[in-house]
Amino acid sequence: MTDTPVSPAPAPAAKPAPAGPLVSAALDGPVGILTLNNGAKRNALSEELLDTFISALEGLQGHNVRAIIVRAAPGMGVWSAGHDIRELKHGAGDPLGYADPLERALRAIRACPAPVIAMIHGTVWGGALDLVLSCDMVVADETSSFAITPANLGLPYNTTGLLHFLGRLPLNLIKEMFFTATPVKAEDAARWGIINHLVPSAELETYTMGIAQGIATKAPLAVAVVKEQLRVLTDYQPVAAQVFERLQEMRRAVYASHDFQEGIDSFLEKRKPVFRGD
Ligand code: LCV
After folding, report:
1. Were both Cys, which of 81, 95, 169, 273 would link to 42 (CB 3.0–4.6 Å)?
2. What is the DSSP letter of 7?
3. Ligand 1 centroid vs 72 CA: distance in angstroms?
4. Active site residue 277
5. Global pTM value
6. Ligand 1 pocket, 80 CB below 6 A?
7. Whose alpha carbon is nearest atom 41 of ligand 1?
């Protein structure tokens, strides 16, 4: 990929600028490329990284891009370790609420008029899988795997997130992924439909860029309207207010539980969690 770097998205003003941008943006003709650059923290989706991601995504739209590729920096064994667990707080309300930075990033991807293609080399964990599934297409290589892990943290996944999975996978596969938190390896991810294409590592960039450049030759207004029609038709599932309230009440009991605190503590203390079911 021969990138023409665009000015890196400004880091959030509140904190000192990171050594290099946590997310860099580049243009290759009509194709934008967003690169996650925090290898030391395995591209954990912190508020800082996600704010930078969202502004970089919005910045690319200002350059009239026709397709956008989201990738990790070359050679990283972990594409993203998911939600920054250090930013999950027990007793601070819903850990995956509407205003959560990860939820904002998912909405930004889904609302972006240009198709967004996730290019995966390495492992994808937790909320990063929701981010990948929020992209319009996924191209991955043989090093990829995909895990959704709230059961490792005692965290109650949110209803919007579950709808993202229901829009993509059969119920039995969603249940296996959520109940076991086991990473789905590349071959199975291709067979299950988590990814569009499984290609050898050596061809990953060329293959993904080929799809992006192909999209870039199509009528952008027609592409953008189909993307928005599909978003509206899949995201808006009628749920009775009372049902939604009951689900929220059930989730409240979980994120107030000892097990959620244990999930966070065990990660920070680098030990296995012991869940008591309360
Ligand atoms: C903060 C991290 C993280 C991280 N946050 O490297 O799906 S939900 O509902 O659960 C949602 C809420 C969610 O997304 O939760 C997070 C789900 N993610 C995970 O459970 C993955 C947690 N991470 C890991 O299992 C390992 O880090 C992997 C397997 C990704 C990589 O292992 P590796 O041995 O290569 P380390 O574990 O040594 O991590 C390197 C540094 O990145 C930090 C980790 O704390 C460490 O920091 P220090 O060097 O300061 O110790 N890190 C990794 N993941 N999700 N920080």
Report:
1. 81
2. P
3. 15
4. no
5. 0.94
6. no
7. 41
125 Cα nearest atom in ligand 1: 18
End-to-end C-alpha distance for the chain, whole angstroms: 50
Strand order in the sheet with 31-36: 4-5, 23-28, 31-36, 67-72, 116-120, 137-140, 197-198
Could you confirm whether 127 is annotated as catalytic? yes
Of 257, 253, 263, residue with least CA distance to 278 = 257
Going 269 to 271 to 272 to 278, the CA torsion angle's sign is negative
Q: Is the CB of 43 under 6 A from ligand 1?
A: no
Condensed to tens digits (0 to 9), the pLDDT of residues 194-231 reads: 999 999 999 999 999 999 999 999 999 999 999 999 99
Distance from C-alpha of 96 to C-alpha of 88, rounded to nearest angstrom: 9
Active-site entry in 122, 127, 154, 161: 127
Q: Give the number of other Cβ atoms within 10 Å of residue 118's Cβ.
A: 29
Beta bridge partners of 77: none
Q: How far is CA 138 from the centre of its chain?
A: 11
Q: What pLDDT, in 10s, does the model give residues 16-46?
A: 444 579 999 999 999 999 999 999 999 999 9
Q: Could you tell me which CATH number the domain at 4-202+219-235 has?
A: 3.90.226.10
* 80, 128 contact by CB (below 8 A): yes
By DSSP bridging, strand 23-28 and strand 4-5 are: antiparallel
Which atom in ligand 1 lies closest to the alpha carbon of residue 83? Answer: 14
- Where are the extended beta strands (E) located within the chain? 4-5, 23-28, 31-36, 67-72, 78-80, 116-120, 123-125, 137-140, 145-147, 184-185, 197-198
- CA–centroid distance, 124 to ligand 1, in Å, is 10
